[in-house]
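Tokenise the fold.
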Amino acid sequence: MDVDILSLVECDHYEDFFKPALPEMGYDSKWMKRPRPNSADGCCVAWKSDKYAHVAHTCIEYIDRYDPQQKRSYKDRLALIVLLRSRSSGDVLCFVSTHLARNPEQPELDRLRARQVGQVLRRTGLFMAEHSAMDAPVILAGDMNATNFGRLRGIASAVALLNEEAFVHPFTFDCRDVPTGATSCTQVRNVRIDAILYQSQRLELVDVCRTPPLSGDDPIPNAIHPSDHLPIYATFRLATHLQTRYHAARDWFLRLAGISCNLPLNSSQLREAFSLFVRSTSNAVVSKEQFRQTITTVMGTGTVPAKEVDRVLSMLPPNGADFYTFARVYGDATAKAGMPGMDEFKEAFDVFDKDGDGTLSFEELVSAFKECSPAELPEDELKKLFNRLDADNTGTIDIQEFSDYLASTWVSRHCQGY
């Protein structure tokens, strides 16, 4: 495949094979062994040394459960997180390689896999903040051992929103899945369990590999495929500064038009968008004619009906708008639109609802946090959270209360401070 960046999971014999072999192919690499004592494999990230330079790396060993009596954490798998800088452009990229809990045919283990996803998302965000790289795009690749990646995202995102003190990186909500074919085939399954997830606001998906058809009559590994997983790859284009400004201006317009479902722009992105409209100082007032001209430029001539542009411009003062007004109308539109990804949050609710009665009891909420949350939350705090969720004081939480609470928390995090 001759890829620029490579993720290898279940990678053993690193020191005596991969470490000397990769440089001969033009790669530098980092590797971390999994924490299970009797397993010699781990995760490896390799990159073309003439294209990328290593900035920093870290790893997180997933805590699958904690025994308070023995004061012992049980760990089995990990994620390797690497910051790379492009030698040509100077842009920084965060690349994550991971291997989640096994047995994809057991959906009940999605709770554990979601806990692992939550841990790696949290650690990735903190690591990027430590290295002043919060604007760097994120790519996460590896064996997810799950047949429903949306469910994992929904559980991890729901827990992050329920825990108001948790640090949340934008990748938690802006996490797109590269569409590929089946990657694992045995006599009893033919499924896609390996994935590449990427941050769509910063990366454009350009191309995806074609995976060959697999059949249970000839499971892998076989004479053609030497591994029990098929490799997958994707090609991305990092947005230029101008493209980033165009995307931000386009998202501003689409949000006000009520037809955008992307993660909302932050204050920095809004200033980028406003600078495209104002074309001078950030404190200037932009006239409606300037707005109209720039909207036509970023959206493309003839792609948006004139009456739709008029409707959006009617939300601005007659004499135009300064940055404060520009941001305020965007925040109002975002709050009105509500949060994206509600289907995935409903999936999360169903996973938390262990007895399947359509409601969550306090015990089920405690269980959800114990099994799915990357961070511990004391039971008294969980009780307070439960009481806030239980808006009608019935002693249980239904899907509407669950959704409403997540939506209000999401709005407070993403729609304030513009």
The chain is about 40% helix and 20% strand.
